[in-house]
Amino acid sequence: MEVARPECVVFPGTTQDVVRIVQLANQHKTPLVGRGAGTGLSGGALSRKGGILVVFSRMNRILDIDAENHRATVQPGVVNADLSAAVAHLGLHFAPDPSSQKACTIGGNVSENSGGPHTLAYGVTTNHVLALGMVLPNGEEVRAGGSAIDAPGYDLTGLFVGSEGTMALVTEITVKLTPLPEAVKTLLVIFDSLDDATETVAEITARGITPAACEMLDGWTLRAVEAYVHAGFPLDSAAVLLIDVDGLREAVEAHAEEVADVCRAHNAREVRLARDAAERDLLWKGRKNAFGAVGRLSPTYYVQDGVIPRTKLPVTIRRINEIGKKYGFEVGNIFHAGDGNLHPIILFDASDPKQFERAVSASDEIIKFCIEMGGSITGEHGVGMEKDRLMPLLFTDVELDLMRRARDAFNPEGLLNPGKVIPTAKSCGEIRVRPLPIAGGSPA
Amino acid sequence: MSAVATVIATRLAEIVGDANLTANPADSAAYAIGSLRPSAVVRPGSAEETAEVIKFAAAEKLAVVTCGARTKLDLGLPPRKYDLAMDMTRLNRVVACDPGDLTLSVEPGLTLRQLSAALAERGQFLPLEVPFFHRATVGGTIASAMDSPLRQLYGTPRDFILGMEFVTGEGTCGKSGGRVVKNVTGYDLHKLMIGSLGTLGVITKINFRTFPLPRDVRAFVATFDSAERALELRARVSRSPLKPLTMEVLSPGVDRLFFSEFAARIDPAPFPPNLLTSNGWTFTCGFTGTEKVLGRYEADLRAMAAQAGAAKVSILQADDVRAAFARKREFVAIARESSPAATIVKAAVLPTRVREVLATIESAANAESLPWAAMVRGVGVIYAALLPDAVTEDSRDRVARAANRIQSGCEKAAGHAMIPWCPFEWKDKRNVWGAERGDWAQMRKVKSVFDPQGILSPGRFVGGI
After folding, report:
1. Running DSSP on this structure, what letter comes out for residue A440?
2. In sequence order, what are the beta bridge partners of A169?
3. What is the pLDDT at residue B5?
4. Burial track A125-138 (b if 16+ CB lie within 10 A, e otherwise)
5. What is the CA radius of gyration of chain A?
6. How far apart are alpha carbons B232 and B78 in whole angstroms?
């Protein structure tokens, strides 16, 4: 377990403050790390090499809301859910909805290219960012993109979103706002077999049905959640799917029926439709507080974030459970099934170094299986300081070097967020850092 | 052929094979960009061959312009230097397809038609219905960031490309993203490739997420006596819960283009008669869904059109939808076909400022007695075609004055405007990419990472990159 501690924490109030902080850091060749609410799960906002931690909590103003054009411009410290709340009366929302949305900031979302349950239909953060105001590691202020779309030139906004704070400190963000759907139906689908649940998701996808969200909780996880939230998940089931369909009233009805048909064809015990908004909110509360529920059972657990093609869902979940057994761990699975983004949870006792070693090994084996299936090592949590050591599993040295050079074009001295995303050149391919265990965090 | 040229040709032939090298100037005419002709055309058969060619070009300081079906070679500024044409049409395979996951990997030389046919068999499609559809390749479409009417619902390639493989200007094979629909592993370098016009790398593979093919598509067409009213309907629809597949507003003059022989040459499907008016403005949108949903769209659109003051409304079905859609898709191609002097300005502003830009277009074109037509996408992109009938000094000057006014009008409206197409010999005098922007200096940094020697399409891109 790695401890990363800044030497100094600073809370800028304006972009000019940020410029001055960056200039100072340059004078003293001191590392700089940007931070929003610190809810990230890959250590992106931790000061791995010490230095200055730049916390954006004071830069939390919504600068402009343009309802007619579906745009908003915000400072990076605006809390994700606060933006949606501020525009709800206009029938709009900010679509990316990480489970930490009540705490996490939009600046953090931009750095990590955050997801969330409803990104299945609406897309992740990068699909909703139009322009960025930034301070580069040399203190230069830059704007990329614009409110008007299709700006001529390279898609720098696309490069910077998801660059995990290694290229620039973001000080202003223009996002798209998305109309709230006219109607939403939430289905809780109960299964007696895990395979039936995963095969249902594979078929929903293959049929081209795109629910707004399609989440899965396996039996172990739903029991943990039920004990905490009392959302109404049946304790004796092997898995549940929590599915939202939304859109026009006329479409939602048929859409829900289509989803229910697939579920029944795969032996669902029950397809329960949330009666009203209150019941829907309760079900979603269960999903979004799941990691809090797990935290009650164990103070330390390790959450993975692998991604696989949806066609490989049944085999992968079976494999994850086998790997858990092999290493002697109970593995819980609660994840964004609809887009193949897995979050297996391994509970371990941090006071036992052997257990920790085993948890890391089990986790690595899961990630390697995801890659074998044609998948990826992180779907939404980021590489950060957790998975840089795993990057060589997906990218060659040459490919990593190109990424490194792209970063260095903006961050030539490596002062900004050092030791993240790309393994340092000399130890490329070696396993040098242990992953970061998550204690009671709340992944998307 | 000079001794040097012979040496170069010999080495290139070693890499791609004699049959895939054209070093004869007469045969390279088909690859001309304006008056510039490459000394040789190479057709690599793999990413490795592509990388070898680029390594050789970098060592010899040869300027390389990558192309597919060559429908858009004249986009951007004239290249400063043009030694090699890199024809990617031999890389034309579907590399991987996972229909159950709605994902697909293809090589860049595959044509959009081949791609669309392959996907249709699986009940899927890609919203890449762009101009020059019948000939264009996937790679060229992505590298030039052509946009589709379907962006209204599906977004642009940056929203549905999952990853790419490419060869940089140093002959390095790069990769970013992956094949899964959600992924934040590493930097999204592939996003830089989209619309980069071959200035950062040569795309060798593209991974897409695909979409279920809509079953029953209908179109709603409403004519208005003013742009305000047509745009008012656009605003009403965007405030409503409706999510149409496409949404455009067409100016007067579009009817002439769409009914012309030029249009029939580009897409033979007969255009439904009496749909557009010759002096009015037209709102069109496409939508899909179950019978009930289609009914809802029709009822709501009729009601909103009436509130906006529509003169006439029509609903199109089946073949008529396809024919009307093809005209919208091919607006640029049809306009260019209609006149050798056709000049296309592509502008983008916030939707609420479209009206003032349209007023500028109308007044600038009229002041110079230039026939014109415009198509406005619901998302705030305007394609304005200035259509003098011949390339003369006089038409050049009139177009120049009109285009300048339109470009400065867009900037005043907090937007931007570029000139993707005009007669090639006019290009070096026009502000093809619009006014210099604050982030272009950062783009030069990107260019220096991917193509430090500047051998890839030198000078074609923004700011002379």
Report:
1. S
2. A135
3. 82
4. bbbbbbbbbbbbbe
5. 22
6. 40
The answer for residues whose C-beta is within 8 angstroms of residue B337's C-beta and 6 or more apart is: B262, B263, B265, B266
The reported pLDDT for the residue numbered B143 is 98
- A-chain residues near B196 (CB < 8 A): 154
Claim: this prediction has a pTM higher than 0.90: yes
> Are the C-beta atoms of A29 and A74 separated by less than 8 Å?
no
Distance, CA of A5 to CA of B297 (rounded, Å): 57
Going from the C-alpha of B362 to that of each of B134, B355, B359, B384, B386, the distances in angstroms are 31, 11, 5, 10, 10
- What is the dihedral angle through the alpha carbons of A119, A121, A126, A127, rounded to the nearest 10 degrees? -160
Residue of B nearest to A374 (CA): B179
In eight-state DSSP terms, residue A395 is: S
Q: Which residue of A has its CA nearest to B461?
A: A153
Residue among A154, A378, A407 whose CB faces B185 most closely: A378
pLDDT in tens for each of the 444 residues of chain A? 566 899 999 999 999 999 999 999 999 999 999 999 999 999 999 999 999 999 999 999 999 999 999 999 999 999 999 999 999 999 999 999 999 999 999 999 999 999 999 999 999 999 999 999 999 999 999 999 999 999 999 999 999 999 999 999 999 999 999 999 999 999 999 999 999 999 999 999 999 999 999 999 999 999 999 999 899 999 999 999 999 999 999 999 999 999 999 999 999 999 999 999 999 999 999 998 888 888 888 878 999 999 999 999 999 999 999 999 999 998 999 999 999 999 999 998 888 889 989 999 999 999 999 999 999 999 999 999 999 999 999 999 999 999 999 999 999 999 999 999 999 854 433 333 344 444 333 444
Q: Can you say how many angstroms the Cα of residue A153 is from the centroid of all Cα atoms in its chain?
A: 29
Does A153 contact B443 at a Cβ distance shorter than 8 Å? yes
Which among A112, A151, A161 is the nearest to B416, CB-wise? A151
Residue A349: per-residue pLDDT: 87
**Cβ-Cβ contacts under 8 Å for A269 (sequence gap 6 or more):** A190, A191, A192, A234, A237
Nearest C-alpha of chain B: how many angstroms from A159?
5
How many angstroms separate the CA of residue A123 from the nearest CA in chain B?
8
B173/A142 Cβ within 8 A: no
Q: Which residues contact B316 (CB under 8 A, 6 or more apart)?
A: B218, B219, B220, B221, B272, B275, B324
Cβ separation of A68 and B183 shorter than 8 Å?
no
What pLDDT does residue A438 have? 41
CA distance A379 to A113: 9
Q: Collect the ranges in chain B with pLDDT lower than 50.
A: none
How many Cβ pairs within 8 Å bridge chains A and B?
Answer: 247
Residues in chain A within 8 Å Cβ distance of B157: none
B145-204 residues touching A, CB cutoff 8 A: 145, 147, 155, 158-159, 168, 172-176, 178-189, 191-192, 194-196, 200
| DSSP strand pairing (B64-67 vs B40-42) | unpaired
What's the farthest any 2 CA atoms get from each other in chain A?
66
Cβ atoms of A120 and A211 within 8 Å: the answer is yes
> Which pLDDT belongs to residue B460?
97
Question: What CA–CA distance (Å, rounded) separates A250 from A255?
Answer: 9
Residue of B nearest to A147 (CA): B350
- The residues near A192 (Cβ < 8 Å, ≥ 6 apart) are A237, A238, A267, A269
**Predicted ipTM of the assembly:** 0.97
Integer Cα distance of B162 and B173 in angstroms:
17
Six token digits for residue A34:
């940007």
- Give chain A positions within 8 Å (CB) of B180: 307-309, 339-340, 374-376, 379
Indicate yes or no: CB of A154 within 8 angstroms of CB of B443: yes
